[in-house]
Amino acid sequence: MRQTLFIDGVQDCLYGDSAYVLRAWMQKGHGNGPDRIAAERAFDLSMSRVRETVEWGYEDIKQDFTTLYFQKKLEIWETAVGKQYLCGALLCNIRSCLYGNQPASYFGCDPPSLERYLSD
């Protein structure tokens, strides 16, 4: 993961919840301890506001491809769950390239063109 997120000499990182171990490439909130400084509280607040946007993508996949609603339709040992989910995510991303999506609107950025997305 560290090597994948090392881009143009800069160590980029992912943001996760408290289940993740803190690393240079994996950041998380500072928690609710009483000894947090103002900058830590501000960081946690700003990240909690945008963290939900990541979940919008998962929700889109669940709504558009109801067979991928894990709790109702899939049995891990009976179907290729991972492959089916990746196909759903790919199709959802293609639609986002063509028509946009909620996170792109929220952050004020355009998704890549379909040609660029499929060429990477």
SSE layout:
Layout: E1 6-7, E2 10-11, E3 14-15, E4 26-27, H1 38-64, H2 70-73, H3 81-99, H4 102-107, H5 114-119
Parallel strand pairs: 3-4
Antiparallel strand pairs: 1-2
Helix pairs in contact: 1-3
Order of helices and strands: EEEEHHHHH
Give the proportion of residues in helices. Answer: 40-55%
Number of strands: 4
Assembly context of the chains: single chain
Largest sheet: 2 strands, antiparallel
Can you tell me about this structure?
- It is built from five helices and four strands, in the order E-E-E-E-H-H-H-H-H.
- The strands form two sheets. The protein has a two-stranded antiparallel ribbon with strand order 1-2.
- It is 52% helix and 7% strand.
- It has helices spanning 38-64, 70-73, 81-99, 102-107, 114-119, and strands at residues 6-7, 10-11, 14-15, 26-27.
- It has 120 residues and is mostly helical.
- The protein has a domain at 52-119.
Summarize the entry for a quick read.
The protein is mostly helical and 120 residues long. 52% of the residues lie in helices and 7% in strands.
Write out key terms for the chains shown.
120 residues, mainly alpha, two-stranded antiparallel sheet, two-stranded parallel sheet, 4 strands, 52% helix
